Amino acid sequence: MKVVVAVKAVATLDDEVELVDDETAVDPDGLEWDVNEWDTFSLEEALTLRDAAGDGEVVVVTVGDDEAEDTLLACLAKGADRAVRIWDDTLAGADPLAVARVLAAGIERESPDLVLCGVQSSDAVNGATGVATAAHLGLPHVAVVKGLDYDAAAGVATVERELEGGLVEVLRVRVPALLTIQTGINEPRYATLRAIKQARDKPLDELGLADLGLDDGALAASRGSRTRRLRHPEKGAGAQMLDGSPAEVAARIADIVKERMSG
Question: Is-contact 119 130, C-beta < 8 A?
């Protein structure tokens, strides 16, 4: 079996965040990059499925510049068999739908049995890339998966899907399919020092848009949004503490709301 895992390099922001001159992005100088938390659970699930089957291949794919290479090496150190990094300068600042279009083109080359993505990324928190990738691939998908049982012989995955209010929905989906994985589904492994050293000997391919049969026009057509401006939140005067009985506090809150709305 072959499982493709889409991963993302995310940045850890310090308390003091500087923006680039046009205020459309965070200044990358000084940022520290790591594997997106949700993607570590997706990778672990893929490795577990491969190990249980006794054969197969786990391929990690990312859309990212040179900074993303360390993320792929971290995944290879944990046990992934191959890695693919897709990048073109026109992808800088690409929104989730454009990234999904590119991911889909890269994943399609692999013809996997399963595609696993994190539910969301810790930086953008859109939760859109995985399901949009499934749409481009024409694959059935299940989102927010917290349990997975894969029957390779039957070509069916039985999944537990997290719903609102603590409810769980159990679904059976035929593969190939795409699943977005929730944190807590497993216990991600750590890479050994030996595995970290050996990671650089594993295949890591680099592809551009032309390699995927895409161009700037296809990328522009896939975009669903663009960042107009980022800004620091304005600091207010601070919290106003209200004293008194519950009825007095409620009356004061009502007055404040009326004042704000009339102003």
Answer: yes
Q: Residues 94, 225: contact at Cβ < 8 Å? A: no
Q: Could you tell me which residues come within 8 angstroms of residue 77 by beta carbon, excluding any fewer than 6 positions away?
A: 191, 192, 195, 196, 198, 199
Per-residue pLDDT reduced to its tens digit, 188-206: 999 999 999 999 999 999 9
Q: Are 88 and 209 in contact (CB under 8 A)?
A: yes
- Predicted pLDDT at 14: 66
**What distances in angstroms separate CA 204 from CA 24, 71, 249, one per listed residue?**
31, 11, 62
User: Coil, strand, or helix at residue 14?
Assistant: coil
Lay out the sheet containing 2-6: strands in order across. Answer: 168-174, 156-162, 141-151, 177-181, 114-118, 2-6, 57-63, 82-86, 204-207
Torsion from C-alpha of 221, 35, 116, 106, nearest 10 degrees: 40
Backbone angles phi, psi at 256, to 5 degrees: -65, -45
| Cα 31 to Cα 120: distance, rounded to the nearest angstrom | 20
Q: Cα separation of 82 and 106, whole Å?
A: 13
Buried b / exposed e along 117-146 (16+ C-beta atoms within 10 A) = bbbbbbeeeebbbbbbbbebbebebbbbbb
**Unique residue bearing structure tokens 């679904």:** 171
What does pTM read for this prediction? 0.83
Where are the strands (E) in 114-240, listed by range?
A: 114-118, 141-151, 156-162, 168-174, 177-181, 204-207
Give Cα 39 distance to the centre of its chain: 6
Q: How far apart are CA 129 and CA 198, in angstroms?
A: 31
Helix (H) or strand (E) holding 253: helix 246-262
Bridge partners for 160 per DSSP: 147, 170
